[in-house]
Design a protein that fits this description.
The complex is a heterodimer of chains A (147) and B (112). With 147 residues, chain A is an all-alpha fold. Chain A is built from 4 helices and no strands. Helix content of chain A is 76%, strand content 0%. The longest helix of chain A has 46 residues. The C terminus of chain A is likely disordered. The chains are: A mainly alpha (147), B mainly alpha (112). At the A-B interface, α1, α2 and α3 of A face α1 of B.
Chain lengths: 147, 112
Amino acid sequence: MGRPPPRAFDTVLVCVTGATGIIVTLIAAGLLLARDEGISSAWWAMVAVSGALALIALGLGLVLLVRRRTFLARARLLLIEFDEALEEGEDTERLQREAMAWRDALLISGDLELAEQLTDARRRARRSTAAMASDGPATTDDLGERW
Amino acid sequence: MPGAVATRDGTLVAGFITGVAGVIGSVLALIGVLATGESDDTSGVSSGVVSTTTTSDVSCIAVVKAYRVEIQSSSKMLALLTTAGPDGVSPVQADPAARRCGLGETSLMQMR
């Protein structure tokens, strides 16, 4: 699964600071151009450094955004896989463990809705397993797994 | 799950720090450009040409433009700028910015 991405607010904050820096840098550069300043002006150096920093920030923000989208997409895929396994009555032990790990990661990344959906899916899986186990000793082995 | 620990993401911290540094730097640059721009703006006032001598980093284009505006705004200004004072030096000769940019009495007369 890897490391969970930062919360949506933090990710947007980085993007917004980068974009703000770029906008202010462009305004400063435009004013310098309008004043017929030479390229050797010390202000140009400051504008260039600030612009580079703002671009880096925006780039990092976009990387975080992509990471976040990929992470959520994988979590949704797991949820779909879980639902399908439940509908088809397959063994969901592995998926349950995976769902718990994903739920923790989703809670850290602040995606509460998806975490809740995974918790619900796991609850349904546990109920299903319990129902199978209560069908009778003739149909389950010592480990509680269905034959 | 080893990955799911509630610590700050390195990329996030780096992005935030560079973003804030970028914003602060660009705002400082903008303030600096605006502040120095105001002091360089010499057009529209009769003493503007003289005020350009206070800053050594004024571009020659700005100096020439300021002199041209002053000369064209008044017919007497050319004579005032090129006439030597009691010390034998004309205002344009006394202006270091004009000297730096190669402006003299002859070039001022050509501007008219």
